[in-house]
Specification:
single chain; about 100 residues; mainly alpha; about 50% helix; Tc1-like transposase DDE domain-containing protein; RNaseH_sf; nucleic acid binding
């Protein structure tokens, strides 16, 4: 369904919520709800606070969270990818350095 509408769905690695901007937004919302909620859980006042906090999410906040997640992805990728150096000056006839005999 997403592909039919021009979207590409990607899977995030498990336990890497730092790559998911919605997790950053959700974290901000939860902190604000905890700080401002004095009503009992699941009361109508709590629902009102949740709606109020959701309405405070701006396009700028989303952009910042996406930027942060992208930066985290880049840093993660940089740690995973090691440079491959091929020395064309040396002979590759002897593989004994690479394999146990």
């Amino acid at each position: 369904m997403a592909r039919d509408r021009g979207f590409r769905v990607i899977k995030l690695p498990p336990y890497h919520c730092i790559f998911d901007p919605i997790e950053l937004i959700w974290s901000q919302m939860k902190n604000n709800i905890r700080r401002n909620n004095t009503a009992p859980k699941f009361s109508s006042a709590t629902i009102d606070i949740i709606r109020e906090e959701a309405s405070k999410i701006t396009a700028e906040m989303w952009a910042n969270c996406v930027r942060h997640s992208t930066k985290e992805e880049d840093q993660y990728r940089a740690r995973l990818i090691t440079p491959l150096i091929i020395n064309l000056e040396e002979s590759s006839d002897d593989d004994s350095d690479y394999f146990d005999q």
